[in-house]
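Posted in: Protein Modeling Q&A

I'm a second-year student putting together a small comparison for a lab meeting, and my supervisor asked me to include a predicted structure for M48 family metalloprotease. I've never done this before, so apologies if this is the wrong subforum. The sequence is pasted below exactly as I got it from our records. If anyone can share the structure token output, I'd also love a short note on what stands out.
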Amino acid sequence: MFHSRLPWRHAALYVSVAGLALSGCATTAEAQSGGATTITQAEARQGAQAHPQLLQEFGGAMTGPQAQYVEQVGKNIAVRSSLSNARDAFTVSLLNSSVNNAFAIPGGYIYTTRQLVALMNNEAELAGVLGHEVGHVAARHSQRRQQTSTRNSILGVLGSVLAGAVLGNSQAGQLLTQGIQQGTQMLTLSFSRNQEIEADRLGIQYLRAAGYDPRAMGTVLQSLAAQNALDASLQGRRDATIPQWASTHPDPASRVRSALQLAGNATGITNRDTFLARIDGLTYGDDPAQGVIEGNQFIHPQLRFAFAAPNGFYMVNGTRAVSINGQSGQAQLTTAAYNGNLETYVRQAFAGLSQNQQIAPQTLQRTTVNGLPAMYGLTRVNSGNGQVDVTVFAYEFAPNQAYHFVGITQAGRSGVFTPMFNSMRRINANEAAGVVPRVIDVVTVGPRDTVQTLAGRMAYTSAQEQRFRVLNGLSSSATVVPGQKVKLVVRGR
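Accepted answer (user: helix_wrangler)
Welcome! Here is the predicted structure, written out as tokens:
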């Protein structure tokens, strides 16, 4: 959240990837042959216009050897589609985001996050994911998304999410759990199940054409499903259906089976060792420049603040906000333009929650939290599922800088967030300096190494073995052998 290299304002965002839909649907012949036949000038203009906004929303484009490698693989697979035979027609970006995500937009723009790349185990899987996204564009799947996103882009992401929760929108809870960044992800991934399977088929087609092992599409889907299940377990959720690249739609297991069946017994190159060597040192999880989650604490070393989530809640860090989710409520921490008047700031935060009805605080109270001037407001509104309490709690950090929580609970339950509101604090230089990134460390299995000893070197205090197995695509019974290369997540510098 709050990437320090970018100018932050209110978390409302009007970027809508789905709004870049092409004018016209794919014909059956186009879909069967791989999709669209060319990148039109109109598509190129649309993509070029949205590209900078997408980079900003997803943490910015990474540079250096790792980004260059992803670009190389992405362009190699993209030219296997019918969109263009020229590598220069495509722009491939590695995004500095801790969300498992990949997407492509018209105009030849292809994206994947570093988190998703870190989950992969060979170059063929990377090519498969990027090929899948190119397949969506080639098959003209964006047409239906345009109609959806036109409605969704009326409000900023934060406003639409919270207004949805207030007004009983069933998608609001999903968006809140994902944070602002994943809220945008929901707009970019609103494909039907049949479209997802068609994109898988096209991705496998491109893999074959490039000489890769076509089974890589199925194996990366397996890893993503396993990661979803692990995240659900770690966060205390009963399901594993938080929207991710591979599980936006129900029954991801059937997509795995379908992808493996489409691949058949064909073989090809995977370039595993090359891939692992090229991603060695890649940042994993939160970038300290965007703040990090450590246990129940969120710490931002550059903006110098920290807070703790209540017991029983889990956090998800997005580029523009941190979401806090639990059975008894949902909240987000974000920021907005501040002119030095906290009351105005709080009232504007309420007003920005919906364009369909006027929302204003029924009570306002000034206070001080750990030396920070603060103000909070509370209101009760009717939602589709009964009455809910909405709280805005704001803090002044400087004459021109404020941050605020927006919390939603059932009526009478707003106190569940009181410990969190009271935990907001400044951090000193020493505490900030102690926040370091986690990175991927590729190691060679030694003669005495086991899954358990290697997992013990993971930079986590819980679920080390489960994290290690998912990261390396290992089943619950798989072992490691000397000479094998595996990934660890360790503390960086």
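A couple of things worth pointing out for your meeting: Confidence is low (pLDDT under 50) at residues 3-34, 147-189, 241-250. Residues 438-491 form one domain.
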